[in-house]
Amino acid sequence: MIFARHLGARVWILVAVLVAAAILVPAANLWLPASHPLHVPNYLVPLLGKYVCYALLALALDLVWGYVGILSLGHGAFFALGGYAMGMYLMRQIGGRGVYGNPLLPDFMVFLNWKELPWYWYGFDHFAFAALMVLLVPGLLAFVFGYFAFRSRVTGVYLSIITQAMTYALLLAFFRNDMGFGGNNGLTDFKDILGFPIAARSTRAALFAASCAALVAGVLVVGAVTRSKLGKLMIAVRDAESRTRFLGWRAEHVKLFAFTLSAVMAGVAGALYVPQVGIINPGEFAPVNSIEVVIWAAVGGRGTLLGPVIGALLVNWGKSYFTAAWPEGWLFMLGGLFVVVTLLLPRGIVGTFDHGWDALRLRRRARLAERGGSSGATDAVPNPAE
Amino acid sequence: MALARALAFFLFAVTLAGAAPAPAAAQGVDPHAIVQKFGGKQSFEATEGVIGELAATGDPSVAGALRALGEGELYWRDSDQAVFIVHGRDDPATLLDPITGEPAGTAPQSSLTKVRIKNSIRNAISDALAGLTLRAKDPAVRLNAAETLFSEADAQGIAALDAAIAAETVPAVRQKMEESRAAAVLRSDRPSEEKVEAVKVLQHRGDRAALNVLNSLSASSADPVLHRAAQAGAAAIESTIAFWNQAQNVWYGLSLGSVLLLAAIGLAITFGVMGVINMAHGEMVMLGAYTTFVVQELIRANAPGLFDWSLVIALPLAFLVSGLVGLAVERCIIRFLYGRPLETLLATFGVSLILQQGVRTLFGPTNRQVGNPGWMSGAFDVGLMSVTWNRLWIIVFALVVFAVLLLILNRTPMGLQMRAVTQNRRMAAAMGIRTPWVDALTFALGSGIAGIAGVALSQIDNVSPNLGQGYIIDSFMVVVFGGVGNLWGTLVGAMSLGILNKSLEPYAGAVLGKIVVLVLLILFIQKRPRGLFALKGRFVDA
Question: Who's near B382: CB < 8 A, 6+ residues apart?
């Protein structure tokens, strides 16, 4: 109950909207006739599902950037690793239906003239194992990377740069054919997931609902963490790391926890993303992708639960719209967005709204206090996210 | 292949011979008469005999006929068995005189018959051509001929080489001839003592071709003395080659390092002074490269004679263009984000997207052609490694830029202020330094240097809107590795990353080598979070 109150009404509204979407969008796609005005066309379901995955990724980044102050420029790597783990499962599901009809080896391995499955592909024919890897691989990488980086107190832009180096190194590595992940073509031509054909409308609707559920879970987890005592500590580390350390807290442990949890969330987002878009390739590791995630969180408002979700949906909707309507202009707009948001809207949409709201409330209370003469405005106004 | 090469050399020889009439008449043999012997149906042996006769004249003017024969362009006319060169398959064919190359009328294809050849005859032709060129007038042609014979000459070639060596006056050419003669001796059945001598000559030569000859000798030779000599010679050559390979890797590494230095040095200054990472730095490099492109286009259109000067003209302009863009970015964006390095990173990334798309809209998304001036193209050999002029000039240029920057930082008032702000911004401000002004100038300077780096990179890389992206991550690595606030750190960082990268490449491949370097860097940062040459000071939060 306390947790519910702590989260605030807005977050519950978001959760309610997401749950409603998870039910209504598939329903409107599957059961409303195509002529019905509320019918959701087939192409829109995986597109919306993609956006929801992006929102989860943005939320994961927000956990480390908005709440702990670590600007990771490598979150796309965790997203892609989760995606590859899912992609490997989907590859194994193809079985003998590939172009070369090899029951054991994926097509690209047959093409490369490989004779047996590399050891790291073992187990991926079981969904449970693949799902475990979706959580474990990004989490483990983040844990090891974070352990070393935070222990030696790599902070600020240095940390941003080495996270970028990490995703860049992975990009180069996954481009190599010898890695056994399909080289620059990546993994694709998926047939089915858990026995359901992957391109079927009902499967896509279910995947969309699953993405929404994952996002709801993400919002609740991040909400629970940030509203806890640990969350207070995170904000302390963000705002004054040295002071927190001097007070006896282990700042690196706090950071490591947030970084690892965030990477796991990013991995889940990637795993849900892959079956909906039907492909995963090394391009997902590109440093530019990771920076774009940052702008989603920044537009919506970092340090809030609502912001990254709204930002990811808005920016990606804009991207889909403008890359079709005015392809030349999209990069100008994206670039402009980076500049405008950092210069004029550092709190993002949600943060600015809150800020304005708080200012308004302060003024009203001051006016009340003036009129009534009583000091009603003693409760602290929540510190707007910075 | 060898044939083609010999022919190519010969083409050269022929043009020379055309300028200076051949001494054929003086020797009393008429090459024209010999060439006519190709006419009429005859056996391959007879054809080979005629080739031998032609070679014996020692007259370079017969080369055209031999070359045409090798390419199947030598014909004889059915009516009178006269021999002509015919290019192409036009009908009626244009007849050319086989010796002078002058037009000699036309004839229908049906009245002409090709002189038949086979592979052994092709070999005879190439030998004859090589032997002829050994006596050419131009030392360069003789040198090439000697070089060609190295891999081809056998026992029969020794006599011709001996004669050529006796007549040779240029030491370098004579040495090549002697090496070729040694190779020929090793292929012949001369006595072992002579062969051991020849092994020594080849060992002195010390390159891959000599190694091949010695390796095949040590595999085939039955004589233990000779076998041992060949093996020792091959081992010595192998170690020489290994040394030069290493040298070549270091050279490539220095070359890559100088490119990294050029790209990173501007970044290092802005990062050092202002503590901000300029993600648009790569685009400043790109602007410099496009400035070069525009300058070259203008020169091509208006004053083609100035083309060799195009880079010199482009340098100050690129500095200005990128510097002004940098100044604008600093004044309009970065100064409002002071003290928020992460936001600066994001805002400058936005700027980089805008600049990229702007250039793409203006110049198109494809690569633009930027030419190399004469003094930038070509290559020369140092020992067994080849050095290209453009790489050499870029290394020199990078070092000059470095030295100039070092002078600016250490010897000018502005440099003093920049260093002061780098070390302690608030104290510098308290001492009356106008830090915003220093910031703006630093940013303009750093961007300007990126611009002139773009001029240099336009010579070795594709000039496209994505040019900058390729360098930005590597430049970060250099800065992070070298540490900020010290230009020497950038120099050492760039050169060691370059050399490390290129030394790993032969073992791990280019991509894996790069991954290894990145991983090593990430590990290095754990150990020294502020880079190799960190500023000393007592900071809690830097």
Answer: none
Whether residue B341 contacts residue B277, with contact meaning beta carbons closer than 8 Å, is answered with yes
In degrees and rounded to multiples of 5, residue B104 shows phi and psi of: -130, 45
Residues of A in contact with B519 (CB under 8 A): 169
Q: Which residues pair with B85 in a beta bridge?
A: B74, B96
Q: Which residue has the tokens 């090793």?
A: B186
Which of B281, B342, B343, B474 to probe the A interface (max A CBs under 10 A)? Answer: B342
Q: What does the domain layout of chain A look like in residue ranges? A: 2-292
Q: What does the alpha-carbon distance between residue A289 and residue A306 come to, in Å, rounded to a whole number?
A: 21
Give CA–CA dist A17/B448, Å, rounded.
Answer: 51
* Predicted local distance difference test score (pLDDT) of residue B24: 39
DSSP letter string, A64-111: HHTTT----S-HHHHHHHHHHHHHHHHHHHHGGGSSS--SSS-HHHHH
Q: Return d(Cα A341, Cα A348) in angstroms, integer.
A: 7
Residue-level pLDDT at B519: 86
Q: Specify the pTM.
A: 0.77
Residues A346-373 have pLDDT tens digits of 888 888 888 888 888 888 888 888 876 5
Nearest residue to A350 via CA among A13, A10, A4, A121: A10
Is residue A40 within 8 Å of residue A28, measured between CB atoms? yes
- Rounded Cα distance, B302 and B373, in Å: 17
Closest CA to B141 of B232, B39, B9: B9
**Closest residue by Cα to residue A56 from A166, A138, A132, A168:** A138
Region B172-177: mean pLDDT is 83
Among the listed residues A106, A100, A138, the one whose alpha carbon sits nearest the alpha carbon of residue A124: A106
Task: Measure A153 CA to nearest chain B CA, in Å.
Answer: 7
Give percent above pLDDT 90 in chain A. 63
Contact check, Cβ <8 Å, B525/A173: no
Q: Is A175 on the interface with B (CB under 8 A)?
A: yes
Per-residue 3-state assignment (H helix, E strand, C coil) for A163-179:
HHHHHHHHHHHHHCHHH
Give A362-374 as a 3 state SS string.
Answer: HHHHHHHHHHHCC
pLDDT in tens, B250-264: 898 998 899 899 989
pLDDT at B429: 92
Locus of tokens 């090469």: B5
Of B146, B135, B214, nearest to B181 (Cα)? B146
Mean pLDDT of A277-284: 94
Whether A158 sits inside 8 A of B333 (CB atoms) is no
ipTM: 0.85
pLDDT at B485: 67
Domains of chain B by residue range: 2-133, 144-222, 262-377+388-470
- Beta-carbon separation of A338 and B522 below 8 A: no
Task: Point out the residue among A173, A241, A338 whose CB comes nearest to the CB of B349.
Answer: A338
* A contact test, residue of B333, B471, B512, B525 with most A CBs within 10 A: B525
Query: What is the Cα–Cα distance from B14 to B32, expressed in whole angstroms?
Result: 16
- CA-nearest residue of chain A to B539? A242
From CA B97, how far away is CA B425, in angstroms rounded? 84
Each as own residue / partner, the long-range contacts of residues B228-232 (CB below 8 Å, 24 or more positions apart, any chain) are: B229/B195, B229/B196, B229/B199, B229/B200, B230/B199, B232/B203
User: What pLDDT sits at residue A3?
Assistant: 66
Closest residue of chain A to B277, computed from CA coordinates: A157
